[in-house]
Structure formats: structure tokens, C-alpha cells
């Protein structure tokens, strides 16, 4: 009887682990691309919020280059004077990742220290987008 109980508990543990793994997998993986200024950033962040409201299990990465990094710099505010970093904090808590193009920082002579702490600097924004699509199966969106 103890042997049967042990087998049953092992089966339950395996099933529970399998369910946990399945639940941990994202429902989709999406890379949002931005290369335009602050007015587009506000719209992009609204899109990301709406996306997560409709699909809470989505894995989202936002990649910016060119003027698309401006909202990820310290002190950046929308047209109403609201700081972008507060919205970024909220989205990051939901698993959204933010990435900034180093090529842009270099070409625009922007000090990397001015990039908000929530964002990761990557060598190239466009290469990061390509890598996410080709190597990690992300779907591309450009709002």
C-alpha cells in the first residue's frame, strides 16, 4: 500500500510540475519597435498596456533606436508633463522589458548614464529586433 501511495504522489508531483511549466510559458512573444519621438512613445506604451490587458501572459520587449530611445532617458516626460518612467515601472512589473540601442547613444553623443535603470542597453536596436524574431520566435509590431 505504501508503494502504491508513493507512486501516486510521484505521479501527482509530475503532473503538477508539468502544469506549472505550461503556465509559466508566455502566451505569445512580441517585440514592439520604436524609432520615433516622445509623441509616438506615449501611443506605444498605451498599445503595450492594452496588449497586456487583452493577453496578460504575453512576453513583451520594447526596443528603441533613433528618436525612439528618448522616452527611456532620465527625466523624459509626455506632452502633459507626466514622466515616462512611472509607466515604464508599471509595465516592467508586468514583465515588459525595455532595450536601448547603443549605436544611437554613440551617434547622438548621449551619455549611457542618462538611460533609465529599467532599460538595458544593447549593441544595436535593429540587430536586437532581428535576433528576437529569428532566434527567439518573437512577433514584430510597430505601432
Description:
The chain has a single domain, classed as DsrEFH-like (Hypothetical Protein Ychn, Chain: A, 3-Layer(aba) Sandwich), CATH 3.40.1260. Strand 3 (about 95-100), helix 4 and strand 4 (about 120) form a beta-alpha-beta unit. The protein is about 50% helix and about 15% strand. The chain is α/β, with parallel strands linked by helices and about 140 residues long. Helix 2 (about 40-55) runs parallel beside helix 3 (about 85-95). It is built from 5 helices and 5 strands. It has a 5-stranded parallel sheet, sandwiched between helices.
List the helices and strands and how they pair.
Elements: H1 2-24, E1 29-34, H2 38-54, E2 59-64, H3 84-93, E3 97-101, H4 102-107, E4 119-122, H5 125-136, E5 139-141
Parallel strand pairs: 1-2, 1-5, 2-3, 3-4
Helix pairs in contact: 2-3
Please identify the structural class as seen in this structure.
alpha/beta
The CATH H-level homologous superfamily: DsrEFH-like
Number of helices: 5
Shape by Cα distribution = globular
- Taking the alpha carbons of the first and last residues, their distance comes to 61 Å
How would you name the oligomeric state of the polypeptide chains in this document? Answer: single chain
Total count of domains: 1
Number of strands: 5
Low-pLDDT parts are 4-10, 15-22
What order do the SSEs take from the amino end to the carboxyl end, as H and E? HEHEHEHEHE
State the share of residues found in helices, binned by percent: 40-55%
User: In percent, how much strand structure appears in the residues?
Assistant: 15-25%
What kind of sheet is the major sheet?
A: 5 strands, parallel
Spatial extent as radius of gyration: 20 Å
Named at the architecture level, the CATH assignment is 3-Layer(aba) Sandwich
Enumerate the strands of the largest sheet in spatial order, edge to edge or round the barrel: 4-3-2-1-5
The top level CATH class name = Alpha Beta
Assign the CATH topology. Answer: Hypothetical Protein Ychn, Chain: A
Mean pLDDT: 89
